Amino acid sequence: MSIASPAAPLSPADDPVVDTPEQATAAVRTRRRRADLLVAATALVLAVWVTGALWSDPAHRASGVNSGDQAFFEWLLSYGAYALTHGADPLFTHLLNVPDGVNLAVNTSISVYAFVFAPLTILAGPALTFLVILTLNLAGTAYAWYWLFSRHLGANRIGAAVGGLFCGFAPAMISHANAHLNWTAQWVIPLIIARCLLLVRRDKPVRDGSLLGLLIAVCFSIAAEALFFTALALGVFTLVWVLFRRDEVKALLRPVLTGLGSGALAAGALLAYPLWLHFAGPQRYHGTGFDPRIHNEDLAAYAAWPERSLAGAVGLNGDLAANPTEENSFFGLPLLLLVIIGLVVLWRRTDRAHRANLLGLGVTAGVFLVLSLGPELRWLGSLTGIPMPEALIGGLPVFNAALPSRLALIVAPVFGLVLAWLATALSRTDGGSMKVSLPGPRWAWVAGLTVALLPLVPTPLLARERAAVPEFFASGQWREYVADGGTVVPVPITNDLLPDGQRWQAAALADAAGAGEGVFRLPAGFFLGPGGPNGTGRIGPIPRPTQTLLETVAKTGAAPAVTDADRAALREDLRYWNASIVVLGDDVHGAHWPTYQPALKSVMTDLLGPPQRVADVWLWKVPTT
């Protein structure tokens, strides 16, 4: 199918016998609606299956491998609701990281989600809102790819369902479902691609371009890194297609440029302030600060199977990812071979118009596969010393803010489209423009699809228990001890590994959003900000002495002898944070290791004296001198 021509309409050949063209069209539309509903229902059931361990008790269950990120996204949802009802800046806040604040534009603000789901956050709390969005992300992504494949890219209903469900529940999607609301929100990518296709298929460039700009703004809010990858992928595909179909380019140039210009104006108007904050605002940074030689894809991982899959359940996972949330390829060898063979067969048996698309897809997948390997080739868990092309661009602006391994996320939709076309060629129903006959017996291709896809069927995500937000914060009792805008110092100080304080504040933000009241501030926190090497970013601020001391105690359980120097450092830190109270909960949550609450209480007692028992927390009032 040429990108310059729409997919062929569905045929009524396999529909019930009808007497008139109008009845035939109505029957086809009915079949399409039924297929759409069936795919949507299947996607939703699968999404609930994957997230089922969290649905058992959203308030007391958290991601088994990434509870720190979950706490961060829950905080973003609560802060967005608070900003919406209080007229606060949704992209910069001084409620975290006192006194410097946090630039949320250089983080993942998910403002669109926070605003749209604010009523649910206020009524039911951020934990349930987080889970609803995560589940809808998975289901919506699968359905959006199905819609794109069936409406715009030449697959019939069966083929589009196979490809769409693969894309929505691909290994990378299941991996990032471990608390990443940004990377699982890939439903917006098919909508962007569809709008780009319409720029060359119909004569409404201003309308289509303006809608494209709106989608770009939405995607920037939810997942700016994914938007960057999408732009790169579309650029590579377009370049290959233009070189292959040079004779068609001149006629398309004017509507495409008009549409892109309209899109740039619309997106620019919506993103002017976020972009200023991102590139020139306070508390910005340049580059992630993460080592690209750690966060690069292992070449062997492309042929390995993911952990949360049927293959992984029987012990076939190769443990080749940097962490459980970054299995960005892990397609398995059978699927790799099937896609390669499928591309070759489709190329040999289709026309020149389809070949331009196949070539563009193959080159795009190959480019992103190679770039995902990072600056140095990794094989079976070890760096080989072999330099890779990503080293040439990894230090460039914007590129230095992306983790190389995540570039592999572009490969999955390419595989999904190839699967959709192969399934279209195999299915007996009509529809779709990819009309080719595959060589060999049909059962062999069906067997190939089964062997490639069955091991990748996802298994439920892991979950773990977490304590409820203390009643002291959930009930608003903290207001008796802290004036609006005052600082609560959690023990230990909040960061990505010790997220309790941010969960406490998220509950207070959701409550304040509904009641119209103010909220307390926190020192430090889990966010990305400046302070990394060579001007790059880091997680949280550079820790102050008290934060370092309490994190060590929480992690080791060793309560060191407290000195006068420790007490002086604490007094200085409390003044720096303008602290009102210091609070220790009964259950300290560690995102990746056990914590030792009794040791923390012992050290804080040595530092500040005996605490008060207020509701279900231990509380120290900060001395005024």
TrEMBL record:
Biased composition (Low complexity): 1-15
Nuclease listed as a keyword: no
Every DUF6311 domain range: 42-410
Spans annotated as Disordered: 1-20
Keyword Transmembrane appears in the UniProt entry: yes
Membrane-spanning residues: 37-55, 104-123, 130-148, 154-174, 212-244, 256-276, 329-347, 356-373, 406-423, 443-463
Sorted UniProt keywords: Membrane, Transmembrane, Transmembrane helix
Domain of life: Bacteria
A Pfam family it matches: DUF6311
Protein name: DUF6541 family protein
Organism this protein belongs to: Catellatospora aurea
